[in-house]
Amino acid sequence: MNTVWKLPQLKLDVSPLWRSSGGLQLPSDAPSKLTEAWNALITKCKSGNLGFFDWPDSSECAHTLEQVHKLATSLRGTYEGALCIGIGGSYLGPAALQDIFLGTPSKEGFAVHWVSNVDSAAIKKAEHFLSSRKCAVVIISKSGGTTETLAAWFYLSHLFRNEDIVVITDPREGELRRLSNSLGWKSLSVPSNIGGRFSVLTSVGLFPLALQNIAVHELIQGASLMNKALMSFTADENPAALYAYSKYLWDISGCSIDYFMPYDSRLKSLAEWYVQLWAESLGKKQITTQKAVGPNPVAALGTSDQHSLLQLFKEGPRKRVIGFLTALEADSPQIGKPNFDSPQYSFLSRHTFNQLNILASEATQESLINAEVPTYRFELSDLTPKTLGAFLQFQETACGLAGELYQVNAFDQPGVEESKKILRRKLDSETPSSML
Ligand code: PA5
């Protein structure tokens, strides 16, 4: 079985997952399980019920790219910035990509500010952002009815005219669609068959990024390349399937804590996107048995968390799988020589900060392998939209496939929906008990 793959824009090595202590034994029914899971996923995609996989190559995606480009160009010519409001899958993807491509947002040019975790401080920051520039507002909610998003929008709405407003929501349903239809707000649609946490490559992610002049068509190009690569493998040799399968096997054998650890602060929010994708898709009751299943994904950041968590990873109880993520960077600053003598540390001068981080991740992985802790590694060839498009598509496909292995519906979120309903009821009829 192959365990190292060179895929479009990235390399994946899961071999340490199969070598670690007691290692994983490849179950004899692995090929049939993988084939069954892969076929089930592809059948859902082909039936039209599940849209994320075919999206990058669809005519609807090409049309969305045109719409996004046109509207973003027009807004960039009219406004100095945009306030984006959204949460969960309507925030984590675009915010992660924004952090990666823009690094530190410049004070010049078109600025985008997010309201996501709706609280008094976030609202005050948004007001401050809006007070210093002429802004459009983009309200993003697949359902069109998420309470926090609507609360922020209700509060801030008086600062905008109808022509300043863009809504990104379901094509037909929900309160935001109703409002945009009746009040003539501009709108973009999220395909009905692509759910929140799988929507980063739809207008949900494309529009906020296009506003910041990011080459969003390259994200789609990368995703499409990844699709073609994945479709060229048989199910039992498919890297997305084997990645999902090896993590699944570790989970059910007791290593259920799934750390995802990028080594670059720009990738920190990408780890948060990863956590939502794997947690909300898989932490559920099995369809047939109602048994509670699912991994426990956690975000970490190298090298900071080496100085916080590594001791636990290495010598604590064996409950974790650690996934490393690094990215090659052509223009990383050289550490260089200091303006004092430090002969014992002269080796530092030869390296860039990118090399320092990659070597640190390799050192950490080696030490975990020595301690027989299960690990794996993604290496991105750079931090361009094309590469991130490929990576996102890979993760979404692997996660969808994992849903078949866990025998859950990876594409719903009944646990979240119930609390949304309870909150609506409480807001309608109650005062918080701590205030009574
Ligand atoms: O993945 C999901 O469906 C959720 O995390 C949603 O993205 C989140 O609850 C926000 O929902 P909405 O986009 O409908 O406002």
Topology:
Layout: E1 4-7, E2 10-13, H1 15-19, H2 30-46, H3 59-78, E3 81-85, H4 92-102, E4 111-115, H5 120-131, E5 135-140, H6 147-156, E6 165-169, H7 175-183, E7 186-189, H8 203-211, H9 216-231, H10 239-252, E8 257-262, H11 268-282, E9 284-285, E10 292-293, E11 296-299, H12 310-315, E12 320-327, H13 353-370, E13 375-380, H14 385-406, H15 414-429
Parallel strand pairs: 3-4, 3-5, 5-6, 6-7, 8-11, 8-12, 12-13
Antiparallel strand pairs: 1-2, 2-13, 9-10
Helix pairs in contact: 2-14, 3-8, 4-8, 4-11, 9-14, 10-14, 11-14
What binds here, in terms of ligands, is:
5-phosphoarabinonic acid
C-alpha end-to-end distance: 62 Å
Strand order of the largest sheet: 1-2-13-12-8-11
The average pLDDT is 95
Give the low-confidence spans.
Answer: none
State the CATH class of the largest domain: Alpha Beta
Structural summary, described in words:
The chain folds into two domains: 4-45 and 220-404, 3-Layer(aba) Sandwich (Rossmann fold); 55-218, 3-Layer(aba) Sandwich (Rossmann fold), CATH 3.40.50. The protein has 15 helices and 13 strands. Helix content is 46%, strand content 14%. β1 and β2 (10-13) form a beta hairpin. It has helices at residues 15-19, 30-46, 59-78, 92-102, 120-131, 147-156, 175-183, 203-211, 216-231, 239-252, 268-282, 310-315, 353-370, 385-406, 414-429; strands at 4-7, 10-13, 81-85, 111-115, 135-140, 165-169, 186-189, 257-262, 284-285, 292-293, 296-299, 320-327, 375-380. It has 436 residues and is of the alpha/beta class. The longest helix is centred in the C-terminal third of the chain and has 22 residues, at 385-406. Strands 1-2-13-12-8-11 form a six-stranded mixed sheet, sandwiched between helices. Strands 4-3-5-6-7 form a five-stranded parallel sheet, sandwiched between helices. Strands 9-10 form a two-stranded antiparallel sheet. It binds 5-phosphoarabinonic acid (PA5).
